[in-house]
Fold this protein.
Amino acid sequence: MSIVDPRSGAPLTPPEPAPSPAAAPSDEQLIIDVDRNNIQQVLEFSTQVPVLLDCWAPWCEPCKTLMPILEKLTREYNGAFILAKLNIEDNQDIAAQLGVRSVPDVKLISQGGLVDHFQGALPEKEIREWLGRYFPAPEDAPASPEEQAAEALAQGDAETARTLYEELVQQHPEHYAYQVELARALVAQERSGEALALLDNLPPEERDAAPARGVRASVEFREEAPTGEELEALAGRDDSEAQFKRALRQVADGHYEAGLEALLKLMQADRAYGDDVARKTLLRVFDALGAEHPLTVTYRRRLFTLLY
């Protein structure tokens, strides 16, 4: 039994994964509208190729954010699955049978049965990770906006990172991680006041969590670090104060590994300096970098070894 696209009336056949863009399946093959006339055929069709069923409604703003992402990924995966779009407002009986209680609700159907689903307008990166559980990633897949923003920030292109994070915040206002990363990009642009104001407006649980604390710490490091003139005045000195101030400057400038190494050595040589300030500053740098950062993992382990 073939599926008929309600937009064109043409029968659809399972799309074959294409070896090259020139042979890519058309939108009519990959993306269809579903209603009561063809929902049963869609379920049967899933025995030949998996179906991503996007349950949406015209009044749902998150649905409008999510749908273009799903369409983009469907084209990118090039026939690994088809995207079927169900307007629950026009097909309330089907939505009830499928157990749809809120939208957007995206269901992966294969062999006529539900494999998995997610609800809400997830960011593109999370959708890619979800799809990655079931389908091999396409060759030469473009980086997600999140990955592009993170890469730009890592390469020192704070302007590009800020622009990308602003777009992500606009698309996903309740995904607070984007607001934290936007604040990080603002700090890199020497716009610390705006960054702190953004963090202050987060819900308390997000404002006090490690990522936001880390951005605040990076602002504090910039404020506490010695100026160029102060560093020149320390030339030739190798006492604990000079070592600590140089380490602060390295951290404030983003030379985290050098700063962490200097702080660890200072702690080992003069634990009492500044009421154990070297150890306390190490912990603040870990906060700034995040728990999963490779430098945090490495130097936290070395700190533990030194202490115990």
Summary: The domain at 145-223 is CATH 1.25.40.10 (Serine Threonine Protein Phosphatase 5, Tetratricopeptide repeat).
